[in-house]
Amino acid sequence: AIQMTQSPSSLSASVGDRVAITCRASRGIGNDLGWYQQKPGKAPKLLIYAASSLQSGVPSRFSGSGSGTDFTLTISSLQPEDFATYYCLQDHSYPLTFGQGTKLEIK
Amino acid sequence: EVQLLESGGGLVQPGGSLRLSCAASRFTFSNYAMSWVRQAPGKGLEWVSVTSDSGGSAYYADSVKGRFTISRDNSRNNLYLQMNSLRAEDTAVYYCARWYISAITKYFDSWGHGTLVTVSS
After folding, report:
1. Which chain A positions have a beta carbon within 8 Å of B104's beta carbon?
2. What pLDDT shows up at residue A51?
3. Smallest Cα distance from A14 to chain B, Å
4. Which of A21, A97, B89, B98 would give a disulfide with A73, using CB separation of 3.0 to 4.6 Å?
5. Counting Cβ atoms within 10 Å, is residue A81 exposed (0-12), middle (13-18) or buried (19+)?
6. Does residue A48 contact residue A62 with C-beta atoms inside 8 Å?
7. Which of A49, A53, A97 to mutate to test binding with chain B, by most B CBs within 10 Å of its CB?
């Protein structure tokens, strides 16, 4: 199975900050990666698919980059509603695997 | 708007069985692959299983292979997860999710609210 290593596991930041979360795959996955946001007690929500494509309705301050083994989710200017947990997911092959998650907290 | 409503969760003893259901509505269910994803209390997301749009193929996480079976009834717009030989580590919220597949990408584009399964004596 492809292992996804996500970092950092937690991150403190302020409204307006630019933040980046990374995911590394244990082997090359092309651009077969998505990013999901989850708020407490809620189901996850798709933000980015195919490594860099923004899901419809998602604010443009979210962006994704990378290919192969290294991927990044960037939030250009944090808003209060962005404080949540973020997960990457590789869809290159089954079994699908998520990163461990990054909890983004208010500083 | 797509609706996915899970049911069937509850408390079960180790070694027991449980069947989860997911009722889908407001989209053409038979056109989409469907999946189960779980989340243990305070932990991250773990993919469990996926079934093709027809139900003709399925894949499983190693942690549940041989114990869980995914199935679907396209005439009733329902997805199922039969869980046997349950263990304490299967305790989690189980989400039903629509697995969108195109020629160039795949992703979970809709999720249910989840149903809690607790395995404990």
Report:
1. 50
2. 98
3. 24
4. A21
5. exposed
6. yes
7. A49
